[in-house]
Amino acid sequence: MxxxxxxxxxxxxxxxxxxxxxxxxxxxILRGVQPAEIVAIxxxxxxxGFRVIEVPLNSPDPFESIRVLRAAMPKDVVVGAGxxxxxxxxxxxxxxxGDLIVMPHSDPAVVRAAKAKGLAAAPGVATPTEAFAxxxxxxxxxxxxxxxxxxxxxxxxWRAVVPKHVPLVPVGGVTxxxxxxxxxxxxxxxxLGSALYKPGNTAAEVGANARAFIAxxxxxxxxxxx
Length: 226
Description:
alpha/beta; TIM Barrel; three-stranded parallel sheet; 9 helices; 46% helix; globular; disordered N terminus; carbohydrate metabolism; lyase activity; Aldlse_KDPG_KHG; lyase
């Protein structure tokens, strides 16, 4: 019996997200950020080299933050929403000018709604079944969540069966110093939370954290030979 090649899975990456992650595969997760501070923090992230910024919807006034940030950022910066739980949220993100829908789960209706609106979709997946179902529904990125629970061995096993061109992005517990084993196992990028930004951090502090992550990524890639 012949096993179908995994590369046969339809996959059409969102052009803006693909370009942004090629430039810098680190996604800034600004949980708790407020509209009044987001432009300064966004500028600090972009100055450090980041090209994807996510505002989780359980932040204060998240749609206003997305609107303000999208208006202020260069066009090559992808502005997204995180913790997107419903189709209605997708529509609100689209109205705010967002480019990316990031989810903690892989509800097919939410993924399909994002794609129907022309937005990139990064559903959260924790099993191969969820991963392949998400791809079938149009996912652009597979968010491996929570990364600290799944771990490097799971990532390595997934990378053996998930098509090489599909980004696997661990999220949860990532620091500037622990990316190396994930990179070596086949991680395509990372979502960065509290080690990058916590409510109350200044733009200068976030910029310093961002530069530490950029340096950590370079060191991890050099160690892994990629």
